[in-house]
């Protein structure tokens, strides 16, 4: 009996032929199956029996695999597997020895490849043993799960793909299906990455663009796609943001702050120290409507926009030292970075400052350029802090006037500015303002306006311009005549170089040529970067705990 023509294929074909005359792969396969049925004279009844048997066989194989996995109680290699591995390793080494031009690099490479499969098997079995030991109960309410079954999942791991069987069930109280072993193994709900792959994806993509990260990952022995790497890093970024909200929220009430301060004060007494906080902002290029550039431009809209990223750094002055080459280094410091606004920065910075000794510091020093939002933040969060205008910004404002009056780099500009720079360094801001005010009536109207702006800048910041004490202390140190107090003072910064260099470092990743971010994308990755810099990486990746000592 000739087989029925497969009518269900017709609509699919008309769909695919809209763009191409070639039938799709599925259609070609279905046709081949139909032709094979006709040739073998298989009736629909035969076929259905055959299909039933195939399904039953597959179910039996699955049940057998699950049962075998469920009984695994020890992670080890079979003797034959060990022998196969040793043989493989020996063969690889023999090849290297036969090639005198190959060096230790080849030995490292080949041995790493050779050991990958036995490690993969061991990791798979160890994870299975771990999964088997997990009680099948709800991870949220700890109630027993009903309708328990087994299901396997395949993961990307450090050693390649791992297949693990886990028991799962339904929690009637939470009305949800749960895989308790997934929680115990640290796996994402719908993501195939093992915790190590999660970490490496997060680390690489927060340090470099995904297309570079995928190549670096490959050299590290990880077989990941660009898209997979990027998606995993984004997922990790969201996880980091969630962690950060909890961290900031831990101290969101006055009682909790008091409790935290008391616990911090219970430790051994500390030498008096100064806590330095520096704040700044830079802008990032963002866009949302991907793929609609032409459409938006036609409507007279720009697809991209600039958006502020607010940043701060906090460190103890006694954690700042110098390298042998006289370069300033800060051994321990905290960062806060966000594009979610000043309020978000304020919360993150305050929490970071508390963690770095805000409650114990005998002086808190906030250093920044003249931006008003910074001083408002400082007044709000650190009302007892000493505010200091970055010396170089103050000088730059005078240079702008000098250039405007006498031209860039002229001897007249140099002669005019010399005494004023000295006055700033001598805390005589009032004299600087007087000089500018005297100058004003003799200028053209446009220049008068500019001068007035500068006068207001110095008037608003005069109380933040105290540099003399520190600069004199530095001079005394150079001359070897410094008192103990001056030796301490000499280390105090007069500029906001620490935050400016931090901004530049973030920009190396987040502000590359031709780079655009989505709002969600930049905040998530920036959060990862900050977590890494703050030495809290192990909070997301407990297996990386030893790294905590690095910051
Ligand atoms: Zn539950």
Structural account:
With 551 residues, this protein is an alpha+beta fold. The protein has four domains: 9-68, no CATH class; 69-190, no CATH class; 274-389 and 495-517, no CATH class; 392-489, no CATH class. The protein has helices spanning 9-17, 25-40, 44-71, 79-97, 104-133, 180-185, 195-207, 210-219, 226-249, 254-265, 293-298, 342-355, 372-381, 391-406, 411-425, 429-439, 445-461, 468-478, 484-489, 497-510, 519-533, 537-540, and strands spanning 146-157, 160-171, 176-178, 274-287, 304-316, 320-322, 328-330, 334-338, 363-368, 386-389. The protein is elongated, with a radius of gyration of 33 Å. The structure holds zinc ion (ZN). The site of zinc ion has 7 residues, from loops. Residues 138, 140-141, 143, 171, 173-174 line the site of zinc ion.
Give a nutshell description of this structure.
With 551 residues, the chain is α+β, with helices and mostly antiparallel strands. It contains 22 helices and ten strands.
């Amino acid at each position: 009996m000739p087989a029925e023509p497969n009518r269900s294929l017709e609509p699919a074909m008309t769909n695919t032929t809209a763009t191409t005359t070639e039938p799709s792969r599925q259609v070609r396969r279905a046709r081949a199956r139909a032709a094979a049925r006709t040739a073998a004279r298989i009736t629909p009844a035969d076929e259905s029996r055959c299909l039933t048997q195939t399904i039953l066989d597959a179910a039996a194989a699955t049940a057998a695999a699950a049962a075998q996995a469920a009984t695994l109680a020890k992670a080890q290699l079979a003797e034959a597997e060990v022998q196969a591995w040793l043989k493989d390793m020996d063969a690889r080494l023999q090849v290297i020895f036969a090639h005198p031009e190959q060096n230790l690099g080849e030995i490292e490479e080949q041995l790493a490849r050779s050991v990958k499969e036995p490690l993969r098997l061991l990791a798979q079995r160890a994870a299975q043993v771990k999964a088997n030991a997990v009680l099948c109960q709800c991870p949220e309410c700890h109630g027993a799960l009903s309708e328990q079954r087994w299901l396997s999942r395949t993961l990307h791991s450090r050693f390649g793909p791992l297949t693990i069987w886990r028991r799962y069930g339904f929690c009637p109280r939470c009305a949800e299906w749960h895989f308790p072993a997934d929680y115990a193994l640290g796996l994402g709900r719908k993501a195939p990455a093992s915790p190590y792959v999660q970490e490496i994806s997060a680390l690489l993509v927060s340090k470099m663009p995904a297309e570079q990260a995928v190549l670096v990952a490959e050299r590290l022995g990880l077989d990941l796609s660009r898209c997979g790497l990027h998606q995993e890093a984004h997922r990790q970024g969201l996880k980091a943001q969630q962690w950060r909200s909890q961290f900031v929220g831990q101290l969101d009430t006055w009682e909790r702050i008091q409790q935290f301060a008391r616990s911090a004060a219970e430790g051994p007494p500390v030498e008096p120290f100064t806590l330095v906080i520096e704040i700044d902002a830079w802008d990032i290029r963002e866009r949302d409507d991907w793929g609609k550039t032409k459409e938006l431009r036609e409507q007279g809209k720009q697809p991209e926009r600039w958006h502020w990223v607010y940043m701060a750094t906090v460190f103890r002055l006694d954690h700042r030292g110098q390298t042998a080459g006289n370069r300033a280094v800060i051994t321990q410091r905290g960062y806060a970075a966000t594009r979610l606004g000043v309020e978000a920065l304020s919360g993150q910075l305050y929490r970071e400052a508390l963690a770095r000794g805000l409650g114990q510091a005998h002086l808190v020093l906030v250093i920044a350029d003249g931006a008003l939002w910074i001083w408002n933040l400082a007044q709000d969060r650190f009302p007892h802090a000493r505010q200091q205008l970055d010396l170089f910004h103050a000088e730059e404002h005078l240079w702008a006037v000098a250039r405007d009056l006498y031209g860039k780099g002229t001897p007249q500009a140099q002669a005019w500015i010399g005494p004023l720079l000295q006055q700033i360094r001598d805390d005589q801001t009032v004299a600087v303002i007087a000089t500018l005010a005297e100058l004003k009536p003799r200028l053209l109207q446009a220049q008068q306006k500019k001068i007035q702006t500068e006068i207001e800048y110095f008037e608003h910041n005069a109380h933040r311009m105290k540099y003399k004490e520190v600069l004199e202390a530095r001079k005394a140190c150079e001359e070897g005549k410094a008192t103990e107090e001056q030796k301490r003072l000499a280390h105090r910064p007069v500029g906001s170089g620490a935050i400016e260099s931090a901004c530049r470092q973030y920009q190396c990743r987040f502000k590359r040529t031709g780079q655009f971010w989505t709002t969600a994308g930049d905040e998530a990755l920036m959060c990862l970067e900050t977590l890494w810099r703050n030495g809290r990486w192990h909070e997301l990746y407990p297996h990386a705990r030893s790294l905590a000592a690095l910051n």
